Amino acid sequence: MAQAEKSLQNRILTYLNFFDSSSVAFEIYNGGVPACVKFGKIIYKSKGKFRPNGIPDIIWVWNGKTVWIETKTKSGVISKEQKLIHAKIVECGGEVIVIRSFEEMTDYANSLRDGKI
Q: 68 and which of 14, 58, 96, 104 could share a cystine (Cβ 3.0–4.6 Å)?
């Protein structure tokens, strides 16, 4: 993961965990486990049937509402696997948002708190 994206995640996690007393956010570790190096490339083990690629980076629970948050830099691309998992979460009644800046996250959280979304 790019350092800029990890830095954004850390800022968002800190913000959401101090948003108010009914707010908690968790990071989801999505890193693969290196299995071996083959032809100069790291080959990753499968994360398993119940931990597929594409899970959003953060789960935020606030005031009874759960939001799955995918963080990307301004130029970051959502992978095919991420699109599939996001669609499945939405199909099951969940909410997924893609956040590309700290300001975008604060705007979303404040709009949610103010009842605008």
A: 96
